[in-house]
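Agenda item 2: PMV complex prediction
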Amino acid sequence: MQTVTAIAHPSLAFVKYWGKVDHTLNIPANGSISVNLSGATTTTTVTFDAALNVDHITINGAPGEHLRVAGHLDRVRRMAGIDARAVVESRNDFPASAGIASSSSAFAALSLAASRAAGLNLDERALSILARSGSGSACRSIPDGFAEWLPGADHASSYARQIAPPDHWDLRVISVVVETGAKAISSSDGHRAAATSPLFQARLAALPHALETVRCAILARDFAAFGAAAEAEALSMHAVALTSRVEGCDWMTGICYWQPGTVRMLKAVEDWRRGGLPVYLTIDAGPNVHLLCEAQCQAALEAELDALLPEVGADAHYFVSKPAPGARVVGD
Ligand code: PMV
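Presented output:
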């Protein structure tokens, strides 16, 4: 069988996916909108080999069982009607489990490489559905550029489609890595806990308006409307997380993904905006902060950030992204 290598970028949400109606299929409680980040890449190579007895999976140089990946290979085998085990080698050029949505690029690249290596030629929608089965947000890393995940009601109707190509808007995302350690509460646990928050239903009720505002602002390249809506949306997700109860963890005050460096960044963004610099932020399920700006403000923002970084954390650093293409094969 063929060896296929695919790459994909993390999907950064401007309207967040938080809470599921089906935890097995990853059917979300709400739609979400995102962009692929050019500054971070997962590269995954898959070979199915009938001579193997078990899957050999290596992630970032570490061989192991990697059960979620093995489970995803089983899905691909079932779709392709094959039994062969696989060799999988996957590498991120950015820290995993730190709020950089590594599972989105990981399952997008794996879905494309594994399905092609198994002899399947899935269209974008089918590939997005497959990626979603591995990790919800991965469905949005399949289309190029800006994507919207249509929540759907079942396996066939829950997938992401493009709302604008990468070159539609020269947006910049400056991802500030406040901490590189793994987070204490996984996003899966966060999704599970979301409905325990008294704010969850209020958030869901507000989401159609947030989706509409962010989608229209992206299409109109209206940065002020876009940034304000995306920032408010991220804070709404974190308000739900902060007020959620995690089963079996009564000692927790709620799910707080933030670290002191995260709060320092929030204050800095307020100061910069008050001083006339148009910058907004979003935060995923981790401590890191993604700054949103337009191309013409990138240099000014980087100058401010360079001066601030020592206050954010001893190892704090950042990388810059533009809107990126979706998952693609790089050699088969
Ligand atoms: O795909 P998951 O299960 O890792 O969930 C991702 C959740 C957020 O990154 C916090 C939000 C999002 O829409 O990507």
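Discussion summary: The chain has a mean pLDDT of 95.
Owner for follow-up: CH.
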